[in-house]
Structure formats: structure tokens, C-alpha cells
Design goal:
mainly beta, 8-stranded antiparallel β-barrel
């Protein structure tokens, strides 16, 4: 135990001497937030979706997460996964999939981003009719506004394209779009 104490004091003394003898100290050239390996976020949004069924609008809930890689210039690429539960009086249009994110550097307390996702979307009409699923694509984007250290508010627009193979009938394409607001939790 006595040897460990001497060794700890010697290491602390050496660190102190080296830090004092340094001729000058430079400030950090790149903020620490941009040097990290990546960010992990979880998000939840609520929105209203405009469907292809007349004036019908759906309540839309999105739950997802993303992993953002380190910044490359002005952009931070990432990958995401999301589940959308879209339900209304006329039709339900759920989605599950993932894709890529592209986040831009923050300016004026706003952090814009864009998404391109691919997955399985379905259309379930409440009255007898369509009840099928197919490949679905989402293109969208929005902004995050930091509120406190780990939370940000989110506003986004999504346009979805659901391609359904009609089987015996014609192929169908549905194109709901939505405006959403929600919250982002920065895990890391």
C-alpha cells in the first residue's frame, strides 16, 4: 500500500510539472460536440395525415430512433428506424421501416434534417374494400429546436408513397402526407 501511495504522488507530480512547463495552451479548434463518434436519438411525434380517401384525415403517431455518424463538413449522415401508426374514421395506414437521415449543422437554434425511408406500409379501409400492404417510401424533413440539454422539440413534414400490388386487380399507389410535432430525446 505504501508503494502505491508513492507511485500515485509521483504520477500526479509528473502531470503537474508537464502541464506547468507547457509554453502555451491552445483553445479547442473543433467543438467537442462535433468530434464525437455519433449521436443516438429517440423521437416521438404526433400529427395529422391527409389521406387519398376524400377529405379524411388521420391521427398519426410516430415512434423511432436514429444513429447519427460524425459530421462531414456541414452534414451529419445517419440511419433510422421508425414505426408510424396512422388511424382515422375511414382508413388506417401504418408503416414500419428505416432509412437514412441527413442532419445539417445548427444555426439560430434550429437544426434542419431530411429523411428517406423504405419499409412496409399498408392501407386498411374501414368499410369493405382495400386491406393490403406493400412497399412504402417516405421522404420528409423538418427541424429540431433544443429545449434543455437532452430534449429538443421537433416539427416535420412527411410524404409517403404506398405501392400495393393489386393481385387480380390493378396496382394501387396511395400518397398520404402529414405534418407532425413532437419531442426528441438525445441518448448520447
Amino acid at each position: 500500500m505504501y508503494v502505491r501511495t508513492k507511485l500515485a504522488v509521483a504520477v500526479l507530480a509528473a502531470i503537474s510539472i508537464l502541464s506547468i512547463s507547457s509554453p502555451h495552451s491552445n483553445a479547442q479548434a473543433i467543438p467537442a460536440g462535433y468530434k464525437r463518434g455519433g449521436d443516438i436519438d429517440a423521437f416521438f411525434t404526433y400529427g395529422r395525415a391527409r389521406t387519398d380517401f376524400g377529405s379524411a384525415q388521420n391521427n398519426l403517431y410516430t415512434l423511432g430512433g436514429d444513429y447519427m455518424f460524425r459530421y462531414f463538413g456541414m452534414f451529419q449522415p445517419g440511419i433510422n428506424v421508425r414505426y408510424i401508426h396512422s388511424t382515422g374514421a375511414v382508413v388506417d395506414e401504418p408503416f414500419f421501416g428505416g432509412g437514412i437521415d441527413l442532419r445539417f449543422r445548427q444555426f439560430w437554434r434550429l437544426r434542419p434534417y431530411g429523411v428517406a425511408d423504405m419499409g412496409i406500409g399498408s392501407v386498411k379501409e374501414k368499410s369493405p374494400g382495400i386491406d393490403d400492404s406493400g412497399v412504402s417510401y417516405i421522404l420528409g424533413g423538418g427541424i429540431d429546436v433544443p429545449i434543455v440539454s437532452r430534449f429538443a422539440a421537433r416539427a416535420e413534414f412527411n410524404s409517403q408513397h404506398i405501392l400495393i400490388s393489386g393481385g387480380k386487380g390493378p396496382d394501387l399507389t396511395f400518397t398520404p402526407y402529414s405534418l407532425n410535432v413532437g419531442v426528441v430525446y438525445h441518448i448520447r
